[in-house]
Amino acid sequence: MSEARTQSDSPSSKPEFPITDRVKHALAQSLRGCEELLPEADWVKKLARSEATGVPLRIKLGLDPTAPDIHIGHTVVLNKMRQLQDLGHQVIFLIGDFTSMIGDPSGRNATRPPLTPEQIKHNAETYYKQASLVLDPARTEIRYNSEWSDPLGARGMIQLAAKYTVARMMERDDFTKRFAAGTPISVHEFLYPLMQGYDSVALKSDLELGGTDQKFNLLMGRHLQAEYGQEPQCILTMPLLEGLDGVDKMSKSKNNYVGITEPANSMFAKILSISDVQMWKWYDLLSFRSLDEIAALKRDIEAGRNPKEVKVLLAKEITARFHSAQAADEAEADFNNRAKGGIPDDIPEVALSGAPMGIGALLKAAGLVPSTSEANRMIEQGGVKIDGDTVSDRGLKVAAGQMVVQVGRRKFARVTLS
């Protein structure tokens, strides 16, 4: 679905309600860090109407519970939801228990196997629990799209499918590429964007959020709402967050992620490891500080403040959100202790047998490295210590006893070797 077609729906008439300073502030919050807001003029009209009438707008975010855990990259859209929630609008956290059974084809080059109802139920429970660390649960409407999708039945599904053409569906980038490459596309995959769009009809949403890879599905909601005689929703897409390396999208498979359930000390240290340049994008997308506060921090650095101090503020804010303010303070103290060569208090204890044991095998068995080749690499780089002494011999045989083993700056284990 092309953007041009969608924007042509946009009324060009003068807004019916006044554009107050509060409306301008709400627009600035909406645009903060976003990739696209379409059509912006329609969103301004909706905000102005809401301000004048006191009727909150309905903000929808749909997430398929394809995995039980989320990392902070997933919270980018949740943060935007929280910002709009704090402006007084009604946010709807939609769990796609029905659409999960179809499988979202977005960005995929092969048909994805659908999840079982049991997997969906398990994932949905932990998904919302984790999302509630960002959203205010007391002001969040939780819905499941099986509520209206199941009752559609075969007749309703056929009537819904009649509201969109195959030619328009094939404009979708991933379908186009797969068709050109001769890669199979199952008919049920055409149902996914239709069902996601129908969610917007069922919820009468004013705005739907999603990642940039969801644009086609979000625009489908606008199309179907118009087909059903509703005022079309606006759409807001958020960029994908680069991971700790500052290059690739945050991903567990690339090991450049910060999990929202990982220990506070690890979370704090990981965030502090990002570059000074990358820090500002994280502030825009992850911090709850106002734009004015962030601008003031930038001026502080320009005036000579150490960027690390500002990065510490970000690391503490995010760590406190998913743990507590006390945990964030303790994580900072732990980080400073490690930086001085100290040993953390909460390191894991590991009991191993087989002394004398090769250093590479010991590091792997203690869970400090994924492989002996990685152990050798770390030794060559001077990143392995036993009781504070750097190990330089890859062929070292470690004798029986108890010792503190360190790999890099953040990985420790108290090993008892027999």
Which stretches of 5+ consecutive residues score pLDDT under 50? 1-13
Shape: globular
- H/E topology pattern: HHEHEHEHEHHHHEHEHHHHHEEHHEEEEE
Question: What is the domain tally?
Answer: 3
What's the total count of β strands? 13
End-to-end CA span: 66 Å
Binned, the helix content reads 40-55%
Largest sheet: 6 strands, mixed
Strand order of the largest sheet: 1-6-5-2-3-4
- The CATH architecture name of the largest domain reads 3-Layer(aba) Sandwich
CATH level-four homologous superfamily name of the largest domain: HUPs
Overall radius of gyration? 25 Å
Helical run tally: 17
Strand content: 5-15%
CATH fold descriptor of the largest domain:
Rossmann fold
Derived from helix and strand composition plus strand pairing, the structural class reads: alpha/beta
CATH class of the largest domain: Alpha Beta
The averaged pLDDT comes out at 86
